[in-house]
Design brief:
Layout (H helix, E strand, L loop, with lengths): L2 H17 L12 E7 L5 H4 L19 E3 L5 E5 L9 E2 L2 E2 L1 E2 L8 E8 L2 E9 L21 E2 L16 E6 L5 E5 L4 E5 L5 E7 L11 E5 L12 E7 L4 E6 L8 H6 L2 E8 L5 E8 L3 H4 L9 E9 L2 E7 L4 E7 L32 E6 L11 E8 L2 E6 L7 E2 L5 E2 L6 E6 L6
Parallel strand pairs: 6-9, 13-14
Antiparallel strand pairs: 1-27, 2-3, 3-7, 4-5, 7-8, 10-11, 11-12, 12-13, 15-16, 16-17, 17-18, 19-20, 20-21, 21-22, 23-24, 24-27, 25-26
């Protein structure tokens, strides 16, 4: 064989090898961010014209409390929480402040186009008569006392106020939301009017400007302050919603809740708003999850239904977040049993009995290992088996207030990120 022929064969071989997919760069074995956009933030007085008169320099934020696909590629439904609020110390005690007490929680449709996120639609959440609700606490004794921006003046309670969190659509143009105050599940129409708010039995909430139904287990009313329902997922096949309490219940007391790692997951029938299942879930030990935090800092802030009885659930501190696959199918259904009774001692939160089988879990996505993610991730939604979208809660940029009562913004923006996974979730 001539040298020229040998050289030609060698060159051809090199060409084929260079073009061969087998020798291309291997796919990433780690989750990676494929998109990171910042939501433009108008001043609250501009965002809620005619409702907010003095926004004290606060801009739109807090929309990362919930995240759900809006139907079109690159569009999401999001929901604010109760509005800008703080917890300064006044005369040696922490007080819950509402710098813009007239703010009405809102559902927003956000469109991501060409690397920019903008609010394409706003739906203010309303009473049955069409008047906007507030984000102020509901009941004396059950909720924190609301104060003005400087913590000096006590504000009025509002039995119809909501601390809205996660969001899904109801398939008929409306929405399901969860709330931290009750805690409660809230059905909202396409125009933002509250159709029904489902609360724990015995809560005795009166005076709201919309229907209230006591359908949920009474024990849920022992939720820790600011730690009610924060995670919500929908299961069309079961015609059901899954809800998670953000932290262990303060059952029988706050100290127990702060130290406990036993949280509760609830399943609710879409047609009746009644609970059909309840399970114990063991949260991670903060010592291995985030050693800089305390056990009471562990929270559940997002939930997606992968298939009946199988969930993708997020645990987090303000700094770190991880996603777990959770299987409820062999766990003990606690609904209607002794652990729904606040008189049961020891409580489920105080001592998990051997007779209760908790939900199984396995780490699915370590968000904490992905460089550059923002803190306080609360919104998580599955776009397809290999793609997630996540959002952070920037707390309306609340930093400190100057002597003039104007906000010194924290500079933290609201982000929406798309993450590509190395393997399918299912």
């Amino acid at each position: 064989m001539s040298r020229s022929l040998i050289a030609g064969l060698a060159a051809a071989t090199l060409t084929v090898l260079a073009a061969s997919p087998a020798l291309a760069a291997p796919p990433s074995r780690e989750p990676r961010v494929t998109s990171d956009v910042t939501l433009s933030a108008p001043a609250l007085a501009e965002f809620e014209q005619g409702l907010v008169q003095d926004d004290r320099g606060v801009k739109l934020g807090g929309v990362g409390s919930g995240l759900y696909p809006a139907g079109r590629r690159g569009e999401y439904w999001m929901v604010t929480d109760r509005g800008p609020n703080g917890e300064p110390k006044v005369n040696g005690e922490k007080r819950r402040t509402f710098p813009v007490p007239e703010f009405a929680p809102a559902i927003v449709r956000v469109a991501v186009r060409h690397g920019v996120a903008t609010v394409a639609q706003t739906i203010t959440i309303k009473n049955a008569d069409g008047t906007p609700i507030s984000g102020r606490p509901n009941q004396v004794g059950h909720d924190e006392v609301p104060y003005s921006w400087d913590g000096q003046t006590q504000l009025a309670y509002d039995p119809g106020g909501l601390d809205t969190e996660d969001i899904v659509t109801d398939g008929r143009g409306g929405f399901w939301l969860v709330d931290e105050y009750g805690p409660s599940l809230v059905h909202v129409g396409s125009d933002g009017r509250i159709l029904t708010r489902y609360v724990p039995k015995g809560l005795g909430l009166t005076g709201a400007g919309y229907p209230v139904a006591e359908t949920l287990p009474a024990v849920l009313s022992t939720r820790q302050q600011n730690r009610g329902f924060e995670a919500l997922g929908v299961s069309p096949l079961e015609r059901a919603l899954y809800l998670a309490v953000q932290s262990p219940l303060a059952n029988p007391d706050k100290k127990t809740g702060k130290a406990s790692s036993t949280a509760r997951i609830l399943r609710v029938d879409l047609r009746t708003g009644r609970a059909t299942g309840e399970w114990a879930y063991t949260m991670e030990s903060v010592g291995t999850f985030d050693p800089a935090a305390e056990q009471g800092d562990m929270k559940i802030s997002a939930l997606n239904v992968l298939s009946p009885g199988r969930l993708l659930l997020q645990e987090r501190t303000d700094a770190l977040a991880r996603l777990y696959k959770v299987d409820l199918r062999r766990a003990t259904n606690l609904l209607g049993g002794p652990y729904d009774d606040v008189a049961t001692s020891p409580s489920l939160e105080a001592a998990l009995p051997s007779s209760v089988t908790v939900a199984t879990k396995a780490l699915a996505v370590d968000l904490a290992a992905i460089p550059g993610l923002p803190g306080k991730i609360e919104g998580v939604t599955v776009l397809d088996p290999m793609t997630l979208a996540i959002a952070n809660d920037n707390d309306f940029g609340l930093g400190t207030f100057g002597a003039d009562g104007r906000l010194v913004d924290s500079g933290i923006a609201s982000h929406i990120l798309t993450i590509r996974l190395p393997k399918p979730l299912l």
